[in-house]
Amino acid sequence: MKTNKAHFFFACLLLCGLGTGCGKELSDQFGAYPNTNPLNDTTWSRVIGTNAQIHLLADSLKTIPLVDSFSAELGDTLNFPNNLEARILPQSLVTATGQSVQGKVKISIARNESKGDWLRGLQGTTSANHVLESDGNFLIRITQQGQELKLAPNSTLTLRFANKDNAPKNQLQVFYGQEGSSFMGSGFDTGFSWKRSTDTSYVGTFQYLGSNSQWKKGYELVVQQLRWVTVARFMDTNMVSKRVYVILSPNFSIKNTLVFAVSNDQKSVIALPADYASRTFSANLPLNGKFKLVSITRIGPRYFLGQMDLTNTNVLSTVKLNPSETSLKNLLQFLSLL
């Protein structure tokens, strides 16, 4: 009998040693099993850490900017590929502390024209939970010796760009990107959102005769602040919507995955933020809307893509995505076709 009791005692000790610890409190994270293979990491955190894979995903997908330089005293009109022109007036730049700028400066413009481009920027087209229809956005940066510059008070920068479809839309307004981190140069901005300009006038349009004797049509966008800017309009603000939840395998989490609903009918992209409580990605989608659900993931050096056509938001409230491994090249090709 003593032998049996001793065996039982040591078995209990062994079970405690193999487990997470006798009497240990529950973790704030889900499925916290230590493993050096990032594919086996199923932990969910409430916030995205600075070392999360999502930042590497952002840097590998972002659009390559167009770059030029000009004299800050003289200003310039710069012509870029794909019918993009930037006009900067003389003495219109200041430093972050408001000092006037002299000498050469560098301008960098990252242009996002398509719905796939917006996914490359890991951005949706929403403002204060309202869906926007956008016809392109830009990240405009002007620097001198690596220091970010601003437009001086009452100064503007004008962008003229041809509409990709050669059919500019009416009644678009200017929206500026509200960034969670000032002058963020890399990684994923978890606090990003769009906010309509206080100047609510409509963006102007223009047309000119191109070198091929065909009329080019586009927008004339007057920018009052640098960094992120888009031309867009609110969709029906009274639109009825429904909450849709997207479920993925546990290792596709807030740390490495983003999910979007890409509209089939207009230039709109809705980001589905991660929901910690349910371990899902969710957002309100317009009823009767037709979307393609897309998940983008980076785990270690590997990329994963999930997609599903959502043709009736009236019926489905929970859907399951099953991402498959892909290459960066194939992922970029997929996004270019959206």
Question: Which terms would index this structure?
Answer:
338 residues, mainly beta, Immunoglobulin-like, eight-stranded antiparallel beta sheet, five-stranded antiparallel beta sheet, 4 helices, 41% strand, globular
Largest sheet: 8 strands, antiparallel
State the separation between the terminal residues, measured CA to CA: 73 Å
Give me the strand/helix succession.
HHEEEEEHEEEEEEEEEEEEEEEEEEEH
Q: Which class of secondary structure composition applies to the elements?
A: mainly beta
Oligomer status: single chain
The number of helices is: 4
Strand content: 35-45%
Overall shape: globular
Could you tell me the mean pLDDT? Answer: 87
Q: Which regions are unreliable across 5 or more consecutive residues at pLDDT < 50?
A: 1-34
Percent helix, as a range, is 10-25%
**Total tally of structural domains:** 2
Rg from Cα: 25 Å
How would you describe this structure to a colleague?
This protein is mostly beta strands and 338 residues long. It has two domains: 63-234; 241-336, Immunoglobulin-like (Sandwich), CATH 2.60.40. Helices cover 12% and strands 41% of the residues. The protein contains four helices and 24 strands. The strands form five sheets. Strands 1, 5, 6, 7, 8, 11, 12 and 15 form an eight-stranded antiparallel beta sheet that branches. It has a five-stranded antiparallel beta sheet with strand order 2-3-10-14-13, with no helix packed on it. The longest helix has 17 residues, at 2-18. The chain is globular and about 55 Å long.
